[in-house]
Automatic annotation (TrEMBL):
GO BP of this protein: polysaccharide biosynthetic process
Family note: Belongs to the DegT/DnrJ/EryC1 family.
Protein name: Glutamine--scyllo-inositol aminotransferase
Swiss-Prot/TrEMBL keywords: Aminotransferase, Pyridoxal phosphate, Transferase
InterPro entries associated with the record: DegT/StrS_aminotransferase, PyrdxlP-dep_Trfase, PyrdxlP-dep_Trfase_major, PyrdxlP-dep_Trfase_small
UniProt key word Transport: no
UniProt keyword annotation of Cytoplasm present: no
Active site as annotated: K186
Naturally occurring in which organism (per UniProt): Siansivirga zeaxanthinifaciens CC-SAMT-1
GO molecular function, one term: pyridoxal phosphate binding
Coiled coil: none
CDD domains from the UniProt entry: AHBA_syn
N6-(pyridoxal phosphate)lysine, modified sites: K186
Length: 397
């Protein structure tokens, strides 16, 4: 997955354009910037990539989730339904708005179970956020139908699914709002960065203002801008955008490499009868950033993951005991450890975290292993890795 594996002359050229002008700020300084607007150019490139009318770059994927929700008016006391398997960032981004993350069961897509979503809707629910984990997606049509029926905002955290599609449409560009991360390990990297993607003009304008202190960005003179509402600073810098601009041009190349490496590994594992794979919804195509497979039970999966580690099969994750991506071990969040007071309303809204059981999520995450697909592997390395993985699994199932 990580785009940093293939840095080259294009990344250096784009960054040097910025260093030569000295303008690191994405807005203003019109006369000094030698015509370079890297953030604007990257936003245009991403509009094409995600086939979406509007893209607002921000400083991270976490910021993208907060800005996306804020741009649609989600805030204090509102409930946002999301899956138990995610990255803590998606949870944090909701908390930052004073809103309440409501975590529900996943299914064999490794993200939202539509039935669990519908059962979790209350009169406080404002949005459903699917987290497109590990390069694939939820049942997008089923989730959209629920959101339409209950008049809820539909949001995609597509940070891990750059380049995946559903019924021919890029993920992140399907729901009302899509969120991307271009942090150091994502398929396209800016170092740090993120994007909010939407076809909704109003959400876009809100995101544009909100991510830069509420500035309206009208005219060339920053001093003359007005501030329609409160905002913060979630800007990306020109340096970061420059790296991303070089990387986005290489996305088709990255996806092709991922697909080739993924397919070779998958074909090898598919010969083991005890190995099954994560379900890709009909009409979906993964980004091939990860290969996700299931073993017959949690115990076997934990043993296989450990044996991978010991035998040098790196970059494979078993999320059951992981405290970044799976609710089970989020003790600091279950205990609501915060530097500052959390409102009683949010505390009440999150009380369920301590007691609620998630047997279906445990069933899928317990048996799952997620292997990152690297861009830098040679064919021989993939072959050797596949053989090692097959041998280890066969010796333990
Ligand atoms: C990486 C990631 C984020 C956060 O992105 P940052 O740019 O690191 O803040 C959010 N959600 C998911 C699913 C991610 O993988």
């Amino acid at each position: 997955m990580p785009g940093f594996e293939l840095f080259g002359s294009q990344e250096r050229k784009e960054v040097n354009d910025v260093l030569e002008s000295g303008v690191l700020m994405r807005y203003g300084f019109d006369g000094m910037r030698n015509g370079h607007w890297k953030a604007k150019e990257l936003e245009q490139a991403l509009q094409n990539t995600f086939q979406s009318k509007h893209v607002q770059l921000v400083s991270s994927g976490t910021a993208a989730v907060s800005v996306a929700l804020a741009s649609a008016g989600v805030g204090a006391g509102d409930e946002v339904i999301m899956p138990t398997f995610t990255f803590v960032a998606s949870f944090e981004a909701i908390m930052m708005l004073g809103a309440i993350p409501v975590l529900v069961e996943i299914d064999d897509t490794l993200t939202l179970n539509p039935k669990a979503v519908e059962a979790a809707i209350t009169d406080k629910t404002k949005a459903v956020m699917v987290v497109q984990m590990c390069g694939s997606m939820g049942d997008m049509d089923a989730l959209q139908t629920i959101c339409t029926k209950h008049n809820l905002l539909f949001v995609e955290d597509a940070c891990q699914a750059i380049g995946a599609t559903y019924k021919g449409k890029p993920l992140g560009g399907i729901a009302d709002l899509g969120c991307f991360s271009f942090d150091f390990v994502k398929t396209i990297t800016c170092g740090e960065g993120g994007a909010v993607v939407t076809n909704n003009q109003n959400f876009y304008t809100n995101a544009d203002h909100y991510s830069d202190h509420g500035h309206d960005h009208i005219g060339n003179d920053r001093g003359a801008e007005t501030h329609p509402f409160l905002g913060y600073n979630f800007r990306i810098s020109e340096l970061h955008a420059a790296v991303g601009l070089a990387q986005v041009k290489r996305l088709p190349e990255f996806i092709a490499i991922q697909k080739k490496n993924y397919t070779n590994l998958r074909e090898a594992l598919a010969e083991i009868p005890e190995v099954t794979f994560r379900r890709i919804p009909e009409g979906g195509e993964e980004s091939y950033a990860f290969l996700n497979f299931f073993l017959p039970d949690t115990d076997t999966s934990l043993k296989v993951a450990e044996a991978f580690k010991v035998n040098g099969v790196d970059a494979c994750f078993q999320y059951y005991n992981n405290n970044w991506h799976y609710l089970r071990k989020w003790d600091h969040l279950k205990d609501l450890k915060s530097l500052f007071p959390i409102s009683q309303e949010v505390k009440n809204g999150l009380a369920y975290l301590k007691t609620k059981a998630y047997p279906e999520s445990d069933h899928y995450i317990g048996r799952n292993i997620s292997c990152l697909i690297k861009l830098s592997w040679t064919e021989a390395q993939v072959k050797e890795r596949a053989q090692k993985m097959v041998d280890i699994i066969k010796s333990l199932v």
